[in-house]
Design brief:
The chain is an alpha/beta fold. The protein has helices at about 5, 30-35, 70-90, 115-125, 145-155, 170-175, 180-195, 210-225, 255-270, 290-295, 335-345, 360-375, 380-385, 395-405, 425-430; strands spanning about 10, 45-50, 95-105, 125-140, 160-165, 200-205, 230-235, 275-280, 280-285, 300, 305, 315, 320-325, 330, 350-355, 375, 410, 415, 445. It starts with a helix and ends with a strand.
Length: about 450
């Protein structure tokens, strides 16, 4: 059911709490160095590597990326990434256990196979990849040739996420991303032939000229290809923040109720095709580890979205990358030239971050459980955190409004999202974010 005042709310996606737009310069390279050195030697790590380059710029894109005017810029960037890996390893010691590696962008597969293999090799040299460690890469199917597929397989990549967005030609022209279905199908076939069988597809709704029929058709198409997971993201139109979005004709953007209908259309198709709903925007085959984790209460959420087995710390590499440690969050310098200068000087290239206190950690856990399970026992979570549950009492007044509208059911300190409330999970989570009212207008719409 479309409920306008909830659908139009500007809310974080809560891949972290506090969200990244609340980071500040009070956390710097010195803070990060101390946090790294304070890590338990047995702490497991997840490594995030950001590649901020694309061959063409999609007009909808909100990522930190650019189009390089020459490939030597890419080569220099990879060289700097290897140097940053060495800097981190020098701080925490080599041989730290790694359970997950994620290459994001931009387009990580813009790297030629030799460069990608050398980068993965440096990570393996400096860290100890654990048996079964997942190596995931975000992929643009348009540039995925046989050599790159072979390079991914040789590097030990276990999962890829294909950027699909929408398969209708008119929508693709409106977003400057021409990508026929055959291109996606060839990518899936080639990856599976190379032994990379864990495949995700990313779709979007709310794009210019997009309709419910377009979204439903795209969902049916990726399901037919047999992908394991599908993410369905809402387009956030923020041309004052992302200049490339100014190329989009705002007059052909779907309205709020149309966006809601598109999200529902994708969910209906994926349900009919046998996918389980995960959180508020993911879907997975019932035997996929993500669906199994959701069914058994082990689903977690971080900067990579929904995950199965979170590491004790996330270490980021590359311009704008974010790290998460027990003490707090850090973000690398987003400006490519300044990031490179600091790495070349042997400095940890931290631009900002935020230190966590006990109440932050409590609220983070509550928000994570809402977004992962659709339910939370506040008393149990507070007790496990060693804090009085009354710290969270202020959220109950806000939740009362959502209960009156049928989005949640409340019983003492237990909260459960209703079937209607699943689409509005971010609204429920936001009730536990006391600083949100001062940050309005800096987030995407809830639906």
């Amino acid at each position: 059911m479309y409920l306008e005042r909830y659908a139009l709310a500007n809310l974080p996606r809560y891949t972290s709490y506090p969200p990244a737009n609340r980071f500040d310069t009070g956390v710097d390279a010195g803070s990060y160095r101390g946090w790294l050195r304070g890590l338990d030697p047995a702490a497991s790590l997840s490594l995030y590597v950001h590649v901020p380059f694309c061959r063409t710029l999609c007009w909808y894109c909100g990522c930190h990326t650019t189009v390089p005017n020459a490939d030597d810029r890419i080569d220099r960037y990879v060289s700097l990434l290897r140097a940053e890996v060495d800097l981190i390893a020098a701080e925490i010691g080599e041989g730290r256990p790694v359970v997950n590696v994620h290459f994001g962008g931009g387009t990580p597969t813009i790297l030629d196979p030799d460069s990608f293999l050398a980068l993965v090799g440096r990570l393996r040299d400096r860290f100890e990849f654990q048996p079964g460690a997942e190596i995931a890469v975000e992929v643009d199917p348009r540039g995925l040739d046989e050599a790159r597929i072979a390079g991914l397989a040789e590097a030990g990549v276990t999962r890829v996420s294909l950027g699909v967005q929408d398969l209708d030609p008119e929508v693709q022209r409106a977003i400057n991303r021409i990508q026929p279905f055959g291109t996606v199908a060839r990518a899936v076939t080639g990856l599976k032939k190379a032994g990379i069988t864990a495949i995700n597809a990313d779709l979007m709704y709310g794009l210019p000229k997009q309709t419910e029929e377009h979204v439903a058709a795209s969902a049916r198409a990726v399901a037919m290809l047999g992908v394991d997971r599908v993410a369905v993201f809402g387009y956030a139109h923020v041309p004052w923040f992302k200049a490339n979005q100014r190329a989009i004709d705002e007059s052909v953007l779907p309205g709020p109720e149309a966006r809601f209908g598109q999200a529902e259309a994708a969910a209906q198709v994926l349900d009919e095709k046998g996918y389980d709903a995960i959180g508020f925007d993911h879907f997975a085959r019932p035997d996929d580890p993500l669906a199994v984790a959701a069914a058994t209460g082990r689903l977690r959420r971080n900067f990579q979205g929904y995950v199965v087995e979170p590491a004790d710390a996330i270490v980021g590499f590359g311009a704008s990358s974010i790290g998460s440690l027990p003490q707090g969050y850090v973000q690398n310098e987003p400006h490519l030239k300044r990031w490179g200068e600091r790495v070349t000087a042997g400095e940890l290239p931290i631009a900002r971050g935020i230190a966590l206190d006990d109440e932050d950690r409590l609220r983070r856990e509550v928000i994570e459980r809402v977004l992962c399970d659709g339910a939370v026992d506040l008393a149990r979570v507070a007790d496990a955190a060693g804090q009085p549950v009354e710290v969270l009492a202020g959220a109950l007044d806000r939740l009362g409004e959502l209960q009156a509208d049928g989005l949640v059911a409340l019983h003492e300190w237990t909260i459960r999202c209703t079937g209607l409330g699943r689409r509005y999970m971010r609204n429920v989570a936001a009730c536990f974010d006391p600083a949100l009212d001062t940050m309005q207008g800096r987030h995407s719409r809830a639906v």
